[in-house]
Amino acid sequence: MAVAAMYMQARQMARCPAKLSLSPTCRRSLSVSAPASGLKVLFFGSDEFADRVLRELEGNRTGTQPCIDHMEVVCPKAQYYMKRDKKVFTYQSPVDKLALKKGLIAHHPFPVSMSSWMLPMVDGGNISGQFDIGVVASFGRFLPPRIINGFKSGMINVHPSLLPKYRGPSPIQTAILNGDSVSGVTIQEIHPSVIDGGKVLAQAPYPIPPTAPSGQLIDEMGTLGGQLTVKVLRDLAFAREKSIEQDETKVSHTRLFDREDSVIVWEEMTAEDIFRVHRTFYQKEPLHTCMRIKNKVKWVQFLELTVAPKSVPPINPQFADFPPGTVFHAKKVPYVEIACLGGGRIHATRFRVSGKAERDAFQFIAGYVKAWKDKRMISHPVNTKHLTPPFAYPEGYVRPTSYTDAYENTELDYKYCTKLATKRMVNDAGYSMADEDSADDSDD
């Protein structure tokens, strides 16, 4: 934040007309280098975040006031097989797709370690020679000093966090999981030995929308990072003059996530925790848990869910008497309600059971829940030769005794709760009850 403020203040000072002397610091004598032009850029990237950064750089290159004259990309090699003389891709990075679409030359380094990869020369027809600068965004490979020093102006990196917070491979996902309200992007020098440890050239904050999934953050922060990169490239000497070292006492790191990180642990997670995990892995690795029906344990993926609004009463007014993971449903209510630790609830509307086709709440209830005696989700598979173990509450946990919000100390009729919940969800979500008229018989 301080770096962003300092950078913007300095840029405003540098642009003050000579005739204005609003403050002693705004002087014509302020030395600022001329804007860079005609840069030859080699871009390193792979994923969706890098795709958004590259789009902004390409937009500058083809715009009316470009600072980039020529650009090529370095990205992972696509994997494909031939079918009827056509390529069928099994993997192609977003950056590789964009380079192909925009007509940019793409280099595919091999091996993965980059240890023996040789830096290419410019291949641009009338433009040739050495690249001026390397720009990195979510490349996923360590770049040795030999490559960094191969550019006239070195290399810079676009990182989706406010460094030194959240160094490493998954800063956006970590920010969501931690419930952060603000993140940002950082443009930094590439450090020869410390990943994400270089000098900070510029930063820009990004307020995190409270319900936005990671994909939205990746798109918007990537665009923001690309725009900030263009500003830095326009006056790289000035940005480096004002750069600062990272405070090592404030460093935090992130890690790579895997499928286990999207498992719901009912014994540990509140409704808000579950929703954060859902936002983090949305459409990548769906949130999932287990349910036991008779002698079978099935994995259930939650494809769409929200935290139950406080204004919507529970389907069962006594839901607090049941352990977290307990499933509630009602006729014509377009969601399944599940009790959570801490007295919260989640509303799930789309499911996939053990690799089957997607189902909405009505289909899920008719196909599974009605034949399910226990009606409690479990965190992990259990031995079906024995009874499901009772729910283990955290040590020192105090269970809520009732629904304590707008309806505190009020005896609620079960049918009234169902009717009111349905009405509010229909109004809020625009759900059409006509779509379910044909499902009445299966939902009785």
Spatial ordering of strands, largest sheet: 5-2-1-8-9-10-11
Quickly give the structural class: alpha+beta
- What is the top-level CATH class of the largest domain? Alpha Beta
Strand content range: 15-25%
Distance between the termini: 57 Å
Number of strands: 18
Total number of helices: 11
Helical content band: 25-40%
Work out the count of structural domains.
Answer: 2
Largest sheet: 7 strands, mixed
CATH homologous superfamily (4th level) name of the largest domain: Formyl transferase, N-terminal domain
CATH topology of the largest domain: Rossmann fold
Listing every helix as H and every strand as E from the N terminus to the C terminus, the arrangement reads: HEHEEEHEEEEHEHEEHHHEEEEEEHEHH
The value of Rg in angstroms is 27 Å
Average pLDDT, all residues: 83
Approximate shape: elongated
